[in-house]
């Protein structure tokens, strides 16, 4: 991305690239090693960045990990918007949208976020940092789902159904944590899509 | 419970009681302190049991914590069955069942189980122990939900809808981890109960 940007200070470019590598490495590290196995030093090594340079960007693991989950969510949301707009004006089917959401919530990013959420559950200082982040990420996911599904939230029950869909895929993400749950997940999303279609459609034409 | 049982060796009784106290304390400890803050020593202190006695029952944190989640799930399932049978033959409404499930998946037991699942995600040895436990707990929760909802799984789509209900409440449990999500959860479960009623009913009389 940076190569296509307006020319800027090479040093600033390098600094941005280093930051990006650290954020990507933090997501991978959290997703595979868990919270306890993720420190600034471990992530720096994974990213091929000196420990000093990493510390320059992120003083603590908490700073690094929250920034990584925020960054990852933005990238992932942008990718999903791109994917949806690549459909060239055709409204994606409910099942297509659910399948994309299902992928989003079984990705390394979801696993990384889960590690952060769970660690924040027993650490008041971390919780104060994570709660507003969770709210932002949640709102963005909701907006994306509403747009993608073409849901009319002014109709009674529709808002709750979209929210339930996001809670469902979050639960499916959890179910995929220890074993490959993809076969069950597709059966289930097919059924959920049929039910959701009824709700969205019934709501449009009561 | 043990006081009403057939008389047995007092020492055996004491041993069972000690074990039970350790298991309860392990659930509370995991739910509030997280995985890193839960060791056999910390749980022993919380349970008012000597470290030696605790080690006699559970050699490692992994043993203690898996036993605690299994025990907690059995107790919680038995409580829910009792609650349902106290309705004296009246079939509980779908919303009543969903509300009970929602409580089950926002309890300290769910938080404790979540800590265990997430820790197992980055520890192969622990995963080998947790995967069969997760499967057993999942099957039991599914059976309970089917019974409580009076769902006929021979009808197409019903099994998936019951499973989706459990994945949904699991996602709701996650949403309740850092902030009180109860108001949103009840709106959402009310809406899902209405949808699920249609699915179960439509399936019964096509």
UniProtKB/TrEMBL annotation, chains A, B:
InterPro entries from the UniProt entry: Homeodomain-like_sf, HTH-type_TetR-like_transc_reg, HTH_TetR
UniProt DNA-binding region: 39-58
Annotated signal peptide: none
Record's keyword terms, sorted: DNA-binding
Tree of life domain: Bacteria
Sample GO molecular function, one term: transcription cis-regulatory region binding
PANTHER family with a match to the protein in the record: HTH-TYPE TRANSCRIPTIONAL REGULATOR PKSA, HTH-TYPE TRANSCRIPTIONAL REGULATOR RUTR
Protein name, per record: AcrR family transcriptional regulator
Organism expressing this protein natively: Actinomadura viridis
């Amino acid at each position: 991305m940076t190569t296509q940007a307006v020319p800027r200070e090479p040093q600033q470019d390098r600094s941005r690239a280093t930051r990006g590598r650290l954020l990507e490495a933090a997501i991978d590290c959290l997703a595979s090693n868990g919270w306890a196995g993720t420190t600034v030093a471990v992530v720096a090594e994974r990213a091929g960045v000196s420990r000093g340079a990493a510390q320059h960007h992120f003083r603590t693991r908490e700073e690094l990990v929250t920034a990584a989950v925020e960054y990852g969510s933005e990238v992932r949301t942008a990718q999903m918007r791109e994917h949806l707009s690549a459909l060239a004006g055709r409204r994606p089917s409910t099942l297509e949208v659910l399948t994309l959401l299902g992928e989003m919530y079984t990705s390394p990013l979801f696993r990384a976020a889960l590690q952060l959420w769970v660690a924040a559950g027993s650490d008041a200082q971390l919780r104060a940092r994570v709660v507003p982040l969770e709210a932002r990420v949640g709102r963005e996911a909701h907006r994306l789902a509403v747009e993608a599904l073409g849901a009319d939230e002014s109709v009674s029950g529709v808002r709750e159904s979209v929210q339930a869909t996001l809670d469902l895929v979050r639960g499916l993400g959890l179910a995929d944590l220890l074993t490959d749950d993809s076969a069950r997940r597709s059966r289930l999303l097919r059924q959920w899509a049929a039910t959701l279609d009824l709700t969205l459609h019934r709501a449009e034409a009561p």
